[in-house]
Structures are given as structure tokens and as C-alpha cells.
Amino acid sequence: MSLLDVIFNRASVRRYTPEPVSEEALNNILEAGRRAPSAMNAQPWHFIVVTEQKLRDQLSKRRWTGFVKDAPLVVIGCGKKHDHLSTVDVAIALQNMVLAAEAQGLGSCWIGDFDQKELKRMFRIPDNLTVIAMVAFGHPAEKPASRNKKSLEEIVHHNRF
Ligand SMILES: Cc1cc2nc3c(=O)[nH]c(=O)nc-3n(C[C@H](O)[C@H](O)[C@H](O)COP(=O)(O)O)c2cc1C
Q: What's the pLDDT tens digit per position in 63-99?
């Protein structure tokens, strides 16, 4: 698959088979995050790899996270508090992971529905860091239809807005 195929074929997956993500696939996912660009090469990120069922059960209790209990792997992306560029950096790293997963035949879904305080307590995240987002990964048990996307005409502006 070409990189463009990977990008164009990706769609959020919310149903997974019970098969765990192999160590090799996980390493590639994490490596893709590690190699992401960051402002001034600050690499402000920390990633928590969550595989324990009890932890995933807890993460799945929110309105938009029910599927997380059946996703064998969740990566929590942490960055610096109150730091816009750090937030951008962590988001880039997480999306690199999403694409690395897709390239290996794995599915993924970003998760923005979480309680910051709860996660910091649950995962013992240091006070100077904040959770930017999470991504669930696993072997897809569905082939989601691609979502409606705005046209280029609606979102692209040439030279001036
Ligand atoms: C920052 C962010 C947070 C998201 N949070 C959730 C979430 O909590 N639960 C969920 O089911 N999907 C979540 N999504 C997935 C979006 O719903 C999905 O990307 C969007 O509907 C477009 O669909 P697609 O990913 O298949 O292109 C999130 C996506 C992003 C980028």
C-alpha cells in the first residue's frame, strides 16, 4: 500500500477482534510516534501504552468510548500543560501512530472523550503534563464506511481567506 492509499483508506474503527496487537506492530506504532516532527525538536511527548483489561474497562465508561473495552490497545498521548506547540506535537505523533497502524492492517480510533483529572490519577501522570488525546488500536472487526468529508472548495483558500 502506498502512503497515499494508507491516508485515503483510513477510517475510524470502533469494533475490534480480541486478537492482541503484536509486539512488532506495537513497536512500529510507537516508533512512528517517536520519529514525528516537533517544534524545536522538543519531543515534549510521553505515551502510556494501555493493554490491561481493567484499565480499558474504566476508559470505556464515557459516552463516546464504549468500544474501548474491546480494543486491545490504547495509547495515551501526554504533552506539556498550557503549551500550544506541545499539543500540536503530540497530535502529530499520535496521527503518525494511526498511519503506522493502518499501514500494518490495524484499525484505530482517536479518543477525545475523557476526564483529565481521572486519567491523571488513574495513570499517575505527573502534574506538569496533560493528556492531549488517546488512540485505540486493534485488528478491525468492521470495515467502516468513509465519513462524509467537506469538499476542497469549502475549506481551501488561495492566497487570501
Ligand atoms: C481529537 C479527536 C477526538 C476524537 N474523539 C472520539 C471519541 O471520543 N470517540 C469516538 O468514537 N471517536 C472519536 N474521534 C473520531 C472521530 O469521530 C472521527 O475521526 C470522525 O468522525 C471522522 O471519521 P473518520 O476518522 O472515520 O474519518 C475523535 C477524533 C479526533 C481527531
A: 999 999 999 999 999 999 999 999 999 999 999 999 9
User: From residue 118, how far is each of 2, 11, 130, 131 by CA, in Å?
Assistant: 39, 28, 11, 11
Q: Whose CA is nearest to atom 25 of ligand 1?
A: 12
| Cα 64 to ligand 1 centre (Å) | 9
**Alpha-carbon gap, residue 25 to 18, rounded angstroms:** 15
Kindly list the protein residues whose Cβ atom lies closer than 6 A to any atom of ligand 1.
11-12, 14, 64-65, 109-113, 133, 144, 147
Is this model's pTM higher than 0.85 or not?
A: yes
Q: From ligand 1's centre to the CA of 148, what distance in Å?
A: 13
Q: Is the CB of residue 45 less than 8 Å from the CB of residue 90?
A: yes
C-alpha 111 to ligand 1 mean position (Å): 6
Give the containing element (helix H, strand E) for 94.
Answer: helix 84-103
Instruction: Tell me which residue has cell 506541545.
Output: 86
Which three three-digit cell numbers place residue 152? Answer: 476542497
> Whole-angstrom distance between the N-terminal and C-terminal Cα of the chain?
35
